Task: structure prediction
Amino acid sequence: VATVQHGFSGFLVRLANEPDLLDEYADDRSALMEREGVAPLDRDAIMTGNLRRIRARVRREHPDVDDFKVIMEPEPGEPKPEPPEPKPEPEPHPT
Amino acid sequence: VPGSLTVVGTGIRFGVHLTPEARGALTRAGRVLHLVSDPVAREWLETLRPDAQSLDTLYAPGKERAKTYREIVEAILEPVRAGYDVCAAFYGHPGVFVSPSHEAIRQAKAAGYPAVMLPGISAEDCLFADLGLDPGTKGCQSYEATDFLVAARAVEPAALLILWQVGVVNERSHVVETDPQRLAELRDRLLELYPEDHEAIVYEASPYPVGDAIVVRTSLARLCDAGVTPASTLVVPPRPSSRDPVARR
Result:
């Protein structure tokens, strides 16, 4: 790991890089976060599991970045297919 | 010819989804360029490669995405031509809903450079796990939302339908927020195929090592009120067919 990470983002990066820490998180995330000095509001967000709340806490440390980047463009210019010809009604069987 | 290209996926949950072979490619490469989905994911990637170059500066609100994608391809190929072993990393699976990765590999190979793609965990992989859906149960249709709408793709309503990039449907530029009018066009198309009260699931996987996916269950009629964002995926469960035992009762 090249740099020391701080704050809420730093805790998330350490979880991603340190399997032992991730194991501890899985065992008792509340105790781990307290030991690691995660701020109470950040801890609360993680305990809810709510992605919007977690992201809102992350955004406090990264206020300048707030957009999602899609990386795919469908091929343009394909015409809509013609609607299928209506099928003729089947001839009634002679009885 | 010196120079090569390896395209890798970082998975959706940064760090914990990275495969050993992708990690090896990232650490061995002479140059690393990346496009990850979140600022913390960028911090994480830069712990592996502090010299990595982010491609997200090529995006700008209102700028045509096709132009951005051409610039991404060029940014990846330039160091390859200069003789570097280049690793280009994209979030998720680098070959699933990623235009410039395929194009960069095509152009590199055409110019005689070795070029490979290594798979990663995709958003679709996360979706099946988080929602408990199996594409094999009744079949699965997966379309990019703009393509679905513009090309009027055929739908089998008795199979699962997944629409990607619904938050940027019919939008060719980079945007920060979803346009409700464009989303309404998609809703109206779906209402030609399904009843108004048919379930729609708006889904977004967590990009962090922690946190649950966003899962909003609503009806197709209320899709525009479901908090769709550019990161959202829409899941339309199968419509019961007349051959289903429950539907036949």
Notes: The beta strands of chain B are 4-9, 31-35, 53-54, 85-90, 115-118, 140-144, 160-164, 199-204, 214-219, 233-236. The two ends of chain B are 68 Å apart (CA to CA). Chain B touches chain A through 55 residues (CB under 8 Å).
